[in-house]
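hey can u check if this looks right to u? its 271 residues, i copy pasted from the old doc so theres a chance i mangled smth
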Amino acid sequence: MSSTKTNKIKYHIANMDCPCEERLVRMKLSEVEGIRLLSFDLNERTLTVTCEIPATEITPTLESLNLGTHLLSEETIDDDVKTDTEEDKTQRKILIQVLVINAVFFVLETVFGYIADSMGLVADGLDMLADALVYGMSLAVVGATVRRKKRVAMWCGIIQLTLAVIGLWEVLRRFLGMEEMPHYIVMISVSGAALIANALCLWLLQRSHSIDAHMKASVIFSANDVIINLGVIAAALMVHFIGSGIPDLVVGLIIFCIVISGALRILKLSK
């Protein structure tokens, strides 16, 4: 069986000499389907595009930026041959960092969630587990083909949906049972720490400026997590002031709705 072929296209972009132009090019090319990765050399003012489409589908997009784009070369390479680019190394480093952060806070939030009788913390911990699994899967496809990356993004979405259904069932069970009042101080303390951790993850991921589907999925996860942490903190304050555990259960329900929304966005991204 013959291996899939991929194009490697090199451009000289005369007016691309700083990160501002690089970001502009990345944003513009994010509109083009079939791109595997972008490798920039600002000193030489060159861009190498590894993709599944010919140069004729990329060149007009670059020329529309009026940065002085000139096609240098175009060659076909084996899709199975992987090149460990600087972008690949950066992606691996970032994904390992956010994987460790999410794994640690999955344990912390789950343990303290049960100690504090907080569905909000348990739900957030479950979401952290989903993210940790996703980052682990993403690590396995850095530098892989577009098709494989999108397949991983699809499985990430499926994982999110599955865990969200489990979480919704637990929220329903607790609504019917109405267990003990959550400990709001523990909720605020743990969620505050998780908020800082997730903000750090989001910052790390956005710095990569990656257009790959699996990295975009990771950004969506971390953005959701920041919103979720704020929701848990708000619920803890309401638990304290109104003397009821209902806000904790409501925020748990909202968290899983957010998880479902993120999962659907990721599944759309994987198409």
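The two ends are 25 Å apart (CA to CA).
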